[in-house]
Design a protein that fits this description.
77% of the residues lie in helices and 0% in strands. It folds into two domains: 7-68, no CATH class; 77-286. It has 296 residues and is mainly α. It has helices at 7-17, 22-45, 50-61, 64-75, 77-105, 112-143, 147-174, 193-223, 231-246, 248-251, 257-286. It is built from eleven helices and no strands.
Amino acid sequence: MTTSIHPDLSRWLDAVTRELPAEAAAYTRHELVAHYEDAVTDYTAAGLAPDEAHAQAMANLGQDEVISRGLKDAHLGYRRYQWAMLASFSMLIFMLGFPVIYLALRLKDGSNQAIALYLLDDLLFYGLTTFVLLSARQLFTWRFHLLKAGRFIQLSVAGLTLQILADISSVLLFGYSHNVGNKYVTIFQTSSGLETGLHLVSLVGFTVIGVGLLGLAHQILKTKIDLYGLGVPLAGLLIVMGGCFISSWLWLNISSAVSLLIGVVVLLCHFLMWPLLTLLFFRILYRPTSQPTRQA
């Protein structure tokens, strides 16, 4: 193997190994340089000029962005998906266990202990959900090369951030009973412009979440990604949840049988989504990939 590397190849190697661990990056660079040099030797022997042989060998290596995503999936994905599987399962336990803890402690609504527990609930929900969503973004981006799906997940995270910030702020500023995330006080019952503004921010957050979930479902169905048999069920659940979040303007502010039903559907979807995501990451980890790479 030659000691000098063509500048084009050096830049390409830097791009595809930039985010890899040092040991993996060094090994990968060694292997890719060997492939490049073997290709140049073969093309030169076939009669191509040195510049033509170099250009063809570089073309054989592939687009740096695509190769980079594949390498990150191979070297960084396993640990990330493993933690995401545990986080998804933890969310299910958390959603089942938190109400039990609240009832067991016999806390009074509005007490300092109840407010502290509620804020802890919000922070844990936000942290675990965001981690799982961003892990799913890396999965869709790295393994399946669906950049648009990753962007819709980022949109959902942005909406969740808005909603949680408004929810926590309303509790700290106006008390537990004025929590904007539930039907304690509707936007029509607010007592100040600031409280109304927090309600609006929360509702915008819910709407953005819904748009992101519907966009992700559309990408899954459009590209026909099987996701080890979970693509269609996941897309269906995302569509239902997305529609419910977009309609939050209705079910969080208008008392009716329909709004109550939508609230129940949202809760049910949460209890279905987390086992499904746990199973998805489990299958991603322990079954060999058979998905073709797709361009965004």
